[in-house]
Design a protein that fits this description.
The protein is 66% helix and 7% strand. It is built from 22 helices and seven strands. A seven-stranded mixed sheet has the order 1-4-5-3-2-6-7, sandwiched between helices.
């Protein structure tokens, strides 16, 4: 009885975890087609969805800028804003134009680099995507914890609970997704509007305080000139520390990922996405400049350090200091909410990335199409990252910046290559300069803070290994989305009393090739031409694709009837065609091969990489998996 109960419980848990697992329909459209969401929204509402990630960085960006640049923080922030408006913004406006279905710059690079090169590059970049999104979850939760623990109404004994509270927030986030989380733009709109309005009040009061005390500006200028000999030196140091401020660039990749949610047809969606990106960048630029200026002048430098009251919460420090603890607490609650929701946005982004890329490559385990197992995986990884960094906001900035900069760099490269490909040299040159700037920022950030690269490479390694193992284990699936036949091919099949297909690897396709193949069919299988022999020729244009839509073309050459088809793999295509012919005609097809020569391990590798290999046994295995009833299985003959 105990064993039965345990088994039932295990089965129930498995069913719950895999609830919503999408089984792919072999009649669905091609892999690159994107369905429009059932509910679409005005561009400004979608902007708020990206804003919970982008605008929430105000919770920690001013403090990180102060730690990185000190009194130079406003100048360094001005350079960051210039890079935002004249670098990241035009880059992602171009991405929005060229990838309007929400696949972003990764899909552009995939299409610009066809075959395995593009797919391996996407797998590599997915490691940096995972770094950016995972660290968004952990950093946002850590900063939310800082706002909780530093609130004056929270007991002082809790100050050492940074890690446990952060883990609880991450666990709650994962729990919400396990129960069932639906993307609610209305919630994002409320959070963003309330948070920005509260920041307007805090910064307005802060600027008023600065204006009322001109000595603050005088003291800041004195300290600035004492530390830096000239404006050129200030710019040079600002450029040096600018990579540390890259957190203020987050949100652009999310902005193009949510494009399908923008209301309207394709052209209207692109226009809406451009408005979304531009408006968000303008709003954030104003807040970045103002907050950096106010916090640098009004907050003592020691308060930004670890253990200081402004560490990870500079604007909250001003809210409490100038507007009282009750208003400060309201500000804390708003900040905690938007930071927590930023983690939700990042987790939702991760759950969207897996089905958009890896299953299309055949590089994801079957259970990865279900949300709950992936939520558990991402939650556990977030736990590990939190423990690794001790839930410290500033120390996670390097890892976050690495992911953000790598994504923007990939977008700049994609836009530059696209412009060159289409002969738009005048456009390619400025985007090439932007690419070099982001390349410098990425490399500089990695050199100074290599922990971000280590984490990214860990994700890259995990994704690549898992993907290749998954591709190998799924290689004998049918892997065909649709089969169509032209009139000639259909006529050949309908006129055949029995279906005898001779598999032929096309070479020069001259008369001698077909005569020799027909003679081989007689010598090895006793097949006569009068039996209605049909040659089947499968060629592989791109073996890196996992699924294929087959178009079977019938033609006659030198008196022989031939079916030609292109596919990502030869064995899977032959098996799919055999099953299709069986279902359409009611006849059990026969296919004839000769034994392959060479090392079987090498043949297997050729199959996995180039789509060929030892075709006869692989075709038989694909048929065996696709049709469990042996009597209904098309016949494979090898001689």
């Amino acid at each position: 009885m105990t064993t039965s109960t345990s088994s039932d419980t295990g089965s129930g848990i498995r069913k719950w975890l895999l609830d919503g697992l999408h089984r792919p329909d072999l009649k669905t459209p091609g892999p690159h087609q994107e369905e429009t969401p059932h509910r679409q929204h005005a561009w400004w509402q979608v902007m708020c969805l990206t804003g919970v990630d982008y605008f929430s960085t105000l919770g920690y960006q001013p403090g990180i800028a102060a730690l990185a640049a000190g009194t130079l923080s406003p100048v360094a922030t001005l350079l960051l804003v210039a890079l935002t408006m004249f670098g990241a913004l035009p880059t992602y406006r171009a991405v929005a134009r060229e990838s309007p279905n929400g696949l972003g710059s990764l899909s552009m690079l995939e299409s610009l680099l066809p075959g395995w090169r593009g797919k391996l590059l996407v797998l590599f970049l997915l490691g940096f995507v995972a770094t950016a999104f995972i660290v968004t979850i952990t950093l946002s939760a850590a900063d939310a914890t800082a706002h909780i623990l530093h609130n004056p109404f929270v007991p002082a004994a809790w100050q050492s609970w940074q890690v446990p509270v952060t883990l609880v927030l991450i666990a709650l986030l994962g729990g919400v997704f396990l129960i069932g989380f639906s993307e609610a733009i209305s919630i994002a709109v409320v959070l963003v509007v309330v948070y920005l309005l509260l920041n307007v009040v805090v910064l307005a009061v802060a600027v008023q305080r600065v204006a009322a005390d001109p000595e603050l500006i005088t003291d800041w200028r004195t300290a600035l000139t004492a530390e830096h000999s000239s404006p050129i030196a200030m710019v040079a140091v600002s450029l040096y520390v600018m990579p540390k401020l890259a957190l203020g660039l987050s949100g652009f990749e999310t902005g193009v990922a949510v494009m399908p949610l923008v209301r309207g047809e394709l052209s209207e969606r692109i226009k809406g996405a451009k408005k979304l990106l531009t408006t968000a960048a303008l709003i954030m630029s104003v807040f970045l400049i103002t907050s950096s200026f106010a916090t640098t002048l009004l907050i003592p430098a020691q308060e930004f350090q670890e253990g200081g009251k402004a560490n990870g919460r500079a604007l909250a420090y001003l809210a409490h200091g100038y507007l009282g603890d009750w208003f400060g607490t309201v500000y804390d609650v708003s900040t905690i909410a938007i930071l927590w929701f930023a983690g939700a946005s990042a987790l939702a982004g991760l759950l969207n990335i897996v089905p958009r890329y890896l299953p299309r490559y055949g590089m994801a385990p079957d259970w990865s199409r279900a949300a709950r197992p992936m939520v558990l995986v991402f939650t556990l990884v977030s736990f590990a990252i939190t423990l690794f960094f001790g839930a410290d906001v500033e120390s996670q900035g390097g890892a976050y910046a690495t992911g953000v900069l790598a994504l923007i760099l990939s977008a700049a490269v994609a836009v530059t290559l696209s412009a060159l490909k289409h002969g738009r040299t005048k456009v390619a040159v400025p985007f090439g300069i932007i690419t070099l700037i982001f390349a410098y920022a990425t490399v500089a950030n990695i050199i100074e803070r290599p922990d971000g690269l280590v984490i990214a490479l860990f994700f890259v390694l995990a994704i690549v290994v898992t993907s290749l193992v998954s591709r190998a284990t799924r290689s004998t699936e049918l892997r065909v989305t649709r089969i169509t036949m032209n009139d000639e091919a259909r006529r050949y099949i309908n006129e055949a009393a029995e279906i005898h297909l001779i598999a032929n690897e096309p070479n020069v396709r001259d008369c001698r090739e077909y005569v020799d193949k027909a003679r081989e069919g007689w010598e090895r299988h006793r097949l006569r031409r009068a039996e209605g022999l049909i040659f089947l020729e499968v060629t592989v244009p791109d073996a890196s694709e996992f699924t294929s839509e087959l178009r079977v073309i019938g033609e006659e050459r030198y008196g022989f009837r031939i079916l030609r088809v292109e596919s990502a793999t030869i064995p899977n295509a032959i098996a799919a065609i055999l099953l299709q012919l069986r279902d359409e005609t009611g006849k059990l097809p026969n296919v004839y091969f000769h034994w392959a020569e060479g090392n079987p391990i090498g043949a297997l590798l050729r199959y996995l990489v180039f789509g060929g290999g030892d075709v006869p046994p692989l075709t038989r295995e694909v048929l065996r998996q696709a049709e469990p009833v042996a009597e209904r299985r098309p016949l494979v003959h090898v001689g």
